Structure formats: structure tokens, C-alpha cells
Amino acid sequence: MSETGLVDDLVSELVILSPGLSSPFDLANLVLLLSTVAQRRELEVDWGELIQRAIDALTSGDSTTPGLFGRLGFSLALQHSLRLLGDETDLAESTDAGVLATLEANAEMRHDLTDGIGGHLLYLLERPDSAINLTSRAKLLDRLSAAGAWWSDDLGLAHGHAGVVLVLARVVGRGWGAERERTLLVSAVDALLSHRQVARPFIYTYVAGGKEGRLGWCYSDLSTALALRYAGRALGRADVEAAAIEAVRSAARVSLEESLVVDAALCHGAAGAALIFSSFDDEPAAKEAALRWYGLVPRFLSATRDRFSLLNGSLGVALALESQVSNEREWARLFCFA
Prior knowledge:
mainly alpha, 16 helices, 0% strand, globular
């Protein structure tokens, strides 16, 4: 089956299952998928009813989970979906107050991209004109700087050092902060590079000093390549960009057995690997690996148990496949898959 056919089958299945959805994040994910596919073909969807359900759920008391894969990220995803559908309504205003409240209530906030300072900075990067931006941004950058340039022995993108490097690179690339943030990024990148290993199959592992890794968005060579590419461009350092290419080439050489891939999901499955490889479209080895891993998605799809999860479900797989079909990748940039 073609990638287009597989996307359309997954969309049909998810739409059939959608009437009983109540999770705010599942609803936001569904709107994100359908609005993305709607740029390619017409869908028979009651957009008003579906979007209102998502908004109501996201602003309810049951949707207080913060972070990139909580209320912050999915409010941005819903905002992005509305723009795709030609609606400029600002939905994220209701989320802004939650950012300030979280900062006030959580003086010991973690640093990572998924749940901590990194995720909150990503949210603010997408909300540059928000009334809370300057105050919240300053507080977050102060906390990040106070911790020094090494945030975790976890080297990964999801919960570790590489994720904060990626976010700080976006901050510096945007022109936010000052020399302090640029110096912090330089030190953080050099610290990450110091953990490069010669051993195969992965040159970047789960944790500092460890030996194990996997192919995925969350850890190891692919995730490190993504962080280093952002950092190299933000700093104008050719050596860091070269290190990103080295890491993605290393990932491209990983065999199926070495990869530890057991499903098709975005986090550490076939579709996630393919999506990240495809974002390195100027690197021949990455382009070849993207095609190889997209080709493996049908083989692993039945092992992808969740339905509506972005990270671990068939909905995320459908989004990755749609990106290959239509080259719509803005959603992937929002969630740091590109």
C-alpha cells in the first residue's frame, strides 16, 4: 500500500473511533492530524463541533498537565490547526496564565524539554507577542543559567541535556537573551560533544558514560543530531553542524536489530526515525535512511497499540506519513521532530 493510502486508512479508522473521545490531548491530536490532511484533500468533518470539543476539553480542569506533551504543546497544536483552516482566533491566551502560575508554584522545575524549563521556553517561542512573554522568558532563562551548562546525565532529547541544547539554540537563534545565553549554549554544546563515543552502533548513548542507545526521537544519535544542527546554525559553528551530520550518518548505519525499534510510533519507532531522517534532506545517507524506515512502517504498525497518542500512537504515525506525502512539517517543528 502507498503512503497516501496508509494515511487515508488510518484517518478513516481514527474518525470512526473519535465520537467517544474525551481526553483533551487526544482531541487536540485528532484536530492536528485532520487539519494537516485537509491541506491535501477534502475531508467530511464537522470542524466546528470537533474544534469546540477540543477547546472545551483543553480548557477544563482535567487538562492541567503542563509541558510539551501536555497543555502547553497541545494548545499550540490546536492553534496551528486553526491557522491551517484559515481561523486566526487566539486560543492560547487561556494557557498563558497557566505558565505564570506554574513558574510561581514550581521553584524547582526540571530543565527538560518534555516537562520542564525547555518545554515552557518552546511555548514562549511560539507566543512572542504574548503579554507574559518577557517576564516568563526572563525567569526561565535565569533559572537555566543558574544551573550551569550541564543539566542532566541523561543525554537524550526528551528528558535530558540534548533537549535543553535544542531549545536554547532556538532561543539564541531567535535573538532572545544576551551574551549570557550564547555563552551558555557554547558550553552546553561542548559538554554534549565531549560524550561522543567511538563504540558502535551508537556514538551518543542514553546517559553520560553509558554504553546503550536506541534509534529514536527520544535518545541517542538521531536526537543528538537534531539538537546539534540547531545549535550549529544558531552559533554559526561549522564544527557543530559537522558533528550533527556525523551523528545522523551514524544513525543511518544502524541495523534493524541494533535499532531496538519494535513499533511504528514517533517516539522510538519506525515512523519517528523516518521523520527525523527526512528533515536532514541535504544529507544523502539520511534521505536513504528515511525511505528505508518509511518502508518499514507497515511492518510495525500492528505493534503500535495506542490510537490517538502523538508520541506512541497510530495518529502520530499518520502525521509522519502525511509529512512524507505532502511535505507539511510545521507540526513536526512545533514538537521538535524537525
